[in-house]
Known about the structure:
Elements: E1 3-7, E2 10-13, E3 18-25, E4 33-39, E5 46-52, E6 57-60, E7 68-73, E8 78-83, E9 92-99, E10 107-108, E11 112-117
Parallel strand pairs: 2-11
Antiparallel strand pairs: 1-3, 3-8, 4-5, 4-9, 5-6, 7-8, 9-10, 9-11
Amino acid sequence: QVQLVESGGGLVQAGGTLRLSCVVSGRTSSTRFVAWYRQAPPKEREYVGVIDWEIQTAYYSNSVKGRFVISRDGATDTVYLLMNQLKPEDTALYSCAAGPGIGAYNYWGHGTQVSVSS
């Protein structure tokens, strides 16, 4: 069965860097696209970016473009979210999601917390 497990969150100062991991177990064509979302209550969940596993092409929201990089490792079925130049407003619970197409995510992880201090 498909399972997504995030890790790598923690506390970091503004301007710092963190790399999150999302291990996609049981990956198939139904998980071609792996996306990252974040949520900092009471704000709504926000789209961060997505990667097409097959062609290794990533897309990003304007809020993180130029700072964050999504990549994947085929040997470990892991999708990474490299977060550079972190800002306090990046503080959130980061979750990964997977599905057969962009915007069609059938599987979700439970998330990993990222806290950025000013």
